[in-house]
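Notes from hallway chat w/ T.B., transcribed later so I don't forget. T.B. wanted the structure written out for a chain they're using in a teaching module, and asked if we could keep both sequence and structure tokens in one place. Agreed to drop them here.
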Amino acid sequence: MKNDVRPRRVVSAARIGCVLLCGLVLWACGGGDGARIAPFAAAPPATTDGTGVESVVPVAPVGPAVVPPSLEGIEYADIAGLAEKAAQGATSRDMVAYLLKRVDMLDKRGPTLNAVIELNPDALAIAEQLDAERASGKSRGPLHGIPLFLKDNIDTGDRMQTSAGSLAMVGQPATRDAFVASRLRDAGAVILGKANLSEWAGYRDSALDAGWSGRGGQTANPHVLDQSPCGSSAGSAVVVAAGFAPLAVATETEGSILCPAATNGIVGIRPTLGLVSRTGIVPLASTQDTAGPMARTVRDAAILLSAMAASDPKDAATADARTHAVDYTQFLRSGGLEGRRVGYPSVFLSSIGAMLFPDFPKAIDAMRNAGAIVVEVDLPDESAPEETTLLSYYFGRELNAYLATRRGIPVKTIEELQAFNKTAPLDPGGKPYPQRSIDEAVRLLKADEATYERKAREQKARVAAEIDRVLQANGVDAILTPGRSGAMAGYPAISVPAGMDSRGMPTWIHLVGTRWSEPKLLSIAYGFEQATKARRNPQFLKTPPPN
């Protein structure tokens, strides 16, 4: 059986504007892991691969027929709001059932967001266990009984698949939780399911639209359904924006947390590389890979980051995390912008910048009115012509190492994946979808290791030095950036909603800082959020309103 899971496109001015800006800054149009903006028309999810291998179509666990009136409106409640409901007698099971019903109404019906690739069949039972703990007087902390989603490249040792959106990975589930998934379970979170993503975190082929996977189909943006959700963490951003859960875990290599958070109007944090473990996460390139939190508020994102951050003996990059992982909510206070120095590149005030970021002057004014010192700075030079080649070099090697940990799936190596993709999924004409990034990764399996490792070290050091130069020369705590700045350096960044444009789409600011600067970034982001209150719930518009 052939599958019509085409990522079909429409043309818009947003795409044209993004292309123009790409010539000036490192924007998300061509991010290494699929952080690419391209409007689309939603395509259905795949159900079989053409060779008899079946994907998993999400089916909501059975919940109560009647939802307690006290839970009405919890879809957009934050963690504190859900805790208040619990204090009033609402159970985690009731909350989970309510949100599962919302997923059923909006994800595969109604606007058909297609953000959920699979639901956790054990979610209600887990919620009941946590309710029993709470009733006995035990609390695991602020995440006790709180629902969240994981991106579908994060291992869970349960009945759910971990497929990176690929039909080639559907089979026996992973045998154990990823380190970060285990920490979240220990913190009391209820994993509702897995979120759709750009297949292989956007590293199948750059011609495929952001938020599309062969297993999950095309994710839609809940604000305007025919606009891009960006990627590769499209599903993670959409489940939060659409009120399926207050939290989600995403991953980024180059823009895949910041861009989806921005275009879906939520908060996303890319942590310092090494603050959060990658063990049990389908890799792209360990030189840049990290997981990070998504939420509707800075406080909720900080709570989730606090639970995720830790040293992991199996991930050497996290050795220093133990000295930096703290309760990040301590840095969130009123007046967080007072005295902070924030730099912004002049590109924001150019004619192209004014077209793409019309609310930016308002964002600067809001910061200044809240006490920040906002100064013009140079745009850090993060050009890296070999970045994509380096990502391909690491992808092939590290995917093979990951696949060696999995059993009972159709492929064991990237070479076998390359062959599988020629058979499934197939387009309506019976042809396979493109996989140029995978082809390149296979080719580079024969590359000289010493040469590429040296190039990666040099690239990281140069980009880090350039960002630090701009920060230090101007005495600023953070830089406002128009795109995915800092990923190659392994530096932290945060995206915060800034308003809505005339098309009904969110606007945003990105803040990037030096290594381990999460406390400063969160303080600035929280101050901006409290000063602007700019986030808006989605309206599920079919198309942008007429100008």
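Follow-up for T.B.: The chain has one domain: 8-49+76-532. Might be a good example for the class.
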